[in-house]
Design brief:
The structure holds 2 protein chains of 2 kinds. Chain A is mostly helical. Chain A contains 8 helices and no strands. The radius of gyration of chain A is 17 Å and the shape is globular.
């Protein structure tokens, strides 16, 4: 059990790091339409991050706002699952990461929308609608690539295999009293969503084996540091600057 | 005073969809003005990452002051979440006039939108996101013209 502050950091950091990573596709996507779609997914994640981190800062009462929490914490202070910090890889890897994260967030936010904590419930209800779009976007591409040419099938299969070990962390015991939600209870419904998409994509669900862990406690992969360095450098170099 | 402030604020155009006002979009959730002329205005974003929200807050405050409010506080409320069902009938008609197919009702079965130009029911999706996150890009198989569709969400 963690405090509501820490829990909000985790929800916000999942969204913030996913936003930063996804936005790396700007000017690099395979088609203009996909660039716009991925930028929109990233913008949704950024909006969710602002809402969760802003609330976390107010709750802490130490004068840290959403910007202070986003730009002035170091790697070990981040509470995101390691899934979102993985490099984008090829387009298939990004699609796999987006599908697994969005399917989890949609289930999580739909449940949190019914908690008795009104502000958390309000943000979650809004975010759940956005995650639903991310699921449908990533599902469509998983199916198109998996059930596509031999090359796209192989690359989508490799992407799913590569990312799968990082999905287990999403369902580890980690909650706040106000949330009252055991993430383990989300895994069965998550598997139903994901297995249906993988099935349509003529891909099989990977075997459960090694599982990434530690992100919720501030232990991260080698990939988070460089991402934060890029994201935070301008804010730190020009402390207090305003537009 | 309250009616005047409310009318002025409701008429503020949406920065991304200039043909619609925030009142027609259903983004204005409440206006109160106390005896001293201090206005509290509650707005809701269409989505959490909406980059236009800061502009809307500033425009709303300016409109309220121009209508006579002595002080303005703009409150952002997330509950209940905004959906496209908050769009007024006027808003839907204005969207269609501007060449944007309005969203269907969330409570009704989803149908592909008709062409806002020639009214043909045969249209296909070109891209799930257009110039804004809420828009899809479609093409009419009848007249061949591409058009934007505000997605029901």
């Amino acid at each position: 059990m963690t405090s509501l502050f820490d829990y909000l950091l985790g929800l916000g950091d999942d969204a913030l790091v996913a936003a930063q990573r996804t936005a790396e596709w700007c000017a690099r996507a395979p088609q203009l339409e996909e660039e716009v779609a991925l930028a929109n997914v990233a913008l949704d994640q950024l909006g969710q991050a602002r809402a969760f981190l802003g609330y976390a800062g107010e709750l802490e009462g130490a004068g840290r706002d959403e910007d202070a929490l986003a730009f002035l914490r170091d790697e070990a202070g981040f509470r995101n699952a390691q899934l979102v910090e993985l490099p984008n890889g090829d387009f298939g890897t990004t699609v796999a990461k987006t599908l697994f994260l969005a399917a989890y967030q949609k289930l999580l936010f739909s449940r949190l929308a019914r908690t008795a904590e009104p502000r958390l419930a309000g943000i979650a209800a809004k975010a759940a609608k956005e995650s639903a779009f991310h699921v449908s976007y990533a599902s469509a591409w998983t199916i198109r690539l998996g059930d596509g040419t031999p090359l796209s099938h192989r690359r989508m299969r490799d992407a799913v295999e590569e990312v799968w070990p990082y999905t287990h962390e999403l369902f580890e015991p980690w909650t706040a009293p106000e949330a009252g939600l055991d993430p383990a209870t989300l895994r069965e419904p998550w598997l139903r969503v994901v297995e249906k998409v993988l099935g349509e994509a003529t891909l099989s669900r990977p075997q459960d084996g090694w599982a990434a862990t530690g992100g919720r406690h501030g232990r991260h992969t080698e990939w988070l540091g460089p991402l934060l360095a890029e994201m935070q450098s301008v804010h730190r170099a020009h402390a207090g600057a305003r537009w | 005073m309250r009616a005047r402030v409310e009318a002025a604020v409701a008429a503020v155009p949406d920065p991304e969809l200039r043909v619609l006002s925030i009142g027609e979009l259903g983004m204005l959730r409440g206006v109160s003005v106390d005896d001293g002329g201090h206005a509290v205005i509650t707005v809701t974003p269409t989505y959490l990452g909406c980059p236009a929200l800061e502009f809307i807050k500033a425009d709303v405050a300016a409109a309220a002051r121009a209508a006579g409010a002595t002080g303005v506080e703009v409150v952002v409320s997330l509950s209940p979440p905004w959906t496209t069902d908050w769009l007024s009938e006027t808003a839907r008609a204005k969207l269609a006039d501007a060449g944007i197919a309005p969203p269907g009702r969330l409570s009704l079965p989803m149908l592909a939108p008709g062409c806002p130009r020639c009214s043909s029911p045969d249209t296909t999706e070109l891209a799930s996101c257009g110039a804004a996150a809420c828009m899809a890009l479609r093409r009419c198989t009848g007249c061949g013209e591409p058009f934007e569709h505000m997605k029901a969400h």
